[in-house]
Amino acid sequence: MSKRSKLLSPKVLLPALLVLALLVALFLIVPRVALPAIKIAAEPVFHIGGFVITNTMLTAWISMIVLIALAFFATRRMSLIPTGLQNVMEVVVEAFLGLVENMAGPKWARRFFPIVMTIFLFLLVSNWMGMLPLYGSIGFLKEAHGEEGAGYVVQPLAGNIEILTGNKAEHGAAGYELEPFLRSAATDLNLPLALALISVFLTQFFGVRSLGLRYFNKFVSINFKKGVFNGVVGILVGVFETISELAKIISFTFRLFGNVFAGEILLGVLAFLIPYVISIPFYGLELFVGAIQALVFSALTLVFFTLAVKGHDHEEHAAH
Amino acid sequence: MDVESARLIAAALAIGIGAIGPGIGIGILGSKAMEALGRNPEARSDIQSNMILAIVFTEAIAIYALVVALIIKFV
C-alpha cells in the first residue's frame, strides 16, 4: 500500500476530522478566557496589624508547610531498609548528596549539603506548586484601572462569588480584573533576592571558615613586591572580584525571577490566545523550567561555595 | 510620538534584540557539546552537566533583557 492512501484511509481521517471539528467548536462555542492582569509587585491579601501579607508570602508558607509535612511523614517510624515515602526521599537526598560530594569533595560536602538541598527542594516545590489549579485563578475581583476598557465583565455565580468572563467591558460598564489569593512564590522579586543574598553571604562565610581572614585578600590585594605595575593590576583584580560578587546577587535574582515570572505570564497569555489547548505543551515546558531553575540556583550556589573554600591559587579559571 | 507608543516599541526592541546574543550563544554551546559527545561518547554525563551549566549562564542574559522589557511595559 502506498503511503498516501494509508494517510487518507478512514481510520486516520475520521479522528482527525473529529479533532478539527472539536477545535473549531472550542473557538466558537466555549467561553473565552480573560487576559491576566500582569503586575510585577505582589498583591496584598490581608493585613495583620500594620504588616501586609501578600499572595506570594502565602504561597511561600504553603511550600514550607508541604516540605515540613513531607519531612515529618518520611522520617517517622524510620527503618534501616526504607519503604514508601522514606524510600523516595532517600533516593532524592542520596542523588543530591552524590552531586554535592562530586563537586565539593568529601570534607566540605556535609557542610554545604543542608543549605544547597534546602534551596533546591524549596524552589522545586514552590515552582511546581505554582502550576496547580488554584494558583492565580481564585482571588479578589477589583475594578480595573488603566486604559479605557481595560477590565472584563463579571458574571455572578453563587452568593458573593463571581466569575470573570472573557468579554471585555464596553464603555460605561465596570471592568474588573483578578487579584489572586495565591501566586507562585518566586514571581515576587523579594524571594529570589532573599535567596541570592543568603547564597552570596554564605559564600563569604564559608570562605572565611576555610581560609580565615586571608579570604578577603581576594578583594583587597595590595602587594607591590613584584613592581608597581603588578601592584596596580592586583588592586584592579580586587575591584573586579568585588563587582563580580555583587553581580552574582543580581544575576541569581533575575535568573530565577525572570524565568518563573515569564513562565507565569506565558501560560496566562497563551490561555487567553487559544484557550484550553495551547497551555498543555507549555505546562510541560514550565515543569521543566521550574525544576531546572531550582537545580541551577542550588548548583551555582554549590559551585561558588566550593570556589570560596578552595582559595584563589587553586581556582580553575574554567569553572568561573 | 507619544510616550505609550514609545513604551511599546521599546519593550519589543528590548527583548527582541536582547535575545539575539544568547540565542546564538546557546546554539554554539549546543553544537560544541554535540561535537564533543560525538568524539567521546563515554564522557556523556560530564559534557551534559557542563553544557547545561553554561546554557543557564547564557540564558540569564536573555532573562535580563526580558526583565527590562517587562519593566518598561508594566512599571
Widest β-sheet, arrangement of strands of chain A: 1-2
- Compute the separation of the termini of chain A in Å: 59 Å
Low-confidence spans of chain B? none
What is the CATH topology assignment of chain B? F1FO ATP Synthase
**Beta-strand residue percentage of chain A:** 5-15%
Largest interface: chains, residues each: A-B, 17 and 13 residues
User: Would you state the CATH class of chain B?
Assistant: Mainly Alpha
- Overall helicity of chain B: over 70%
Task: Specify the number of helices of chain A.
Answer: 7
What is the number of independent domains of chain A? 2
What is the mean pLDDT of chain A? 85
Any overview of this molecule?
- The complex is a heterodimer of chains A (320) and B (75).
- In chain A, 60% of the residues lie in helices and 11% in strands.
- Chain A folds into 2 domains: 44-132 and 185-319, no CATH class; 141-178, no CATH class.
- Chain A has 7 helices and 6 strands, in the order H-H-E-E-H-H-E-E-E-E-H-H-H.
- Chain A has a two-stranded antiparallel sheet with strand order 1-2. A two-stranded antiparallel ribbon of chain A has the order 3-6.
- The model of chain A is unreliable at 314-320 (pLDDT under 50).
- With 320 residues, chain A is mostly helical.
- In chain A, a hairpin with a 2-residue loop joins strand 1 (44-48) and strand 2 (51-54).
- With 75 residues, chain B is mainly α.
- Chain B has a single domain, classed as F1F0 ATP synthase subunit C (F1FO ATP Synthase, Up-down Bundle).
- Helix content of chain B is 89%, strand content 0%.
- Chain B is built from 3 helices and no strands.
- Chain B has helices spanning 3-18, 20-39, 44-74.
- The mean pLDDT of chain B is 90.
- Classes of the chains: A mainly alpha (320), B mainly alpha (75).
- The A-B interface holds A 38-40, 251, 254-255, 257-259, 261-262, 265, 292, 296, 299-300, 303 and B 52-53, 56, 59-60, 63-64, 66-67, 70-71, 74-75.
